[in-house]
Amino acid sequence: MKVKQTAVVLLELQNDFLTEGGKLYPLLKPVLETYDVKAHQNELIRAARASGMLIVHVPIGFSADYREMGDEPYGILQAVKNAGALIKGTWGSALAEGIDIQADDIVVEGKSGIDAFAGTHLDFVLRSHGITTIALAGQLTNICIESTMRAAYDKGYRVFGITDASATIGLEQYDASIEHNWPMFSEPMTYNVFLDRAAA
Question: What are the two backbone dihedrals, phi and then psi, of residue 162, each rounded to the nearest 5 degrees?
């Protein structure tokens, strides 16, 4: 792995998911606490940045009336709407308090769906920086991370899934995704193993 060709792509490190008082935080709390996810996200970010990797944030956001979802959203998007979460310009949609964000990090805007490549210029940003390998972390393990992982795999990126820097709604869903789905589209590993691989 060449660090200058590697990016850490962080999905939805936002207050509504990661910070107490966030509208979806109670649903993620069991996974966040079990795996100390927020601390691991920061440790991953700091070490990867120090090694020369590109740090890319891809938040998700919606209009106040959720018009992006159409008239009859269902599934996870309906759950977001029901919670009144992730409205653009609000505290809940802001990058989470306590997350290490620096001026040189890139924030890719425009995500209002599940796959971080769809409707954004993420692929353009990565290819413009010569990125061939990505490490995925953030939310939600079995939804946006997994969909983005599949897309990245299809686009020819080398993909690492960072297990202990990812969270979702429920430990059972987390375990099922990491154990059964992630290995099909990535090399799942903890952030420490990934950093060791990068330093080798």
Answer: -90, 105
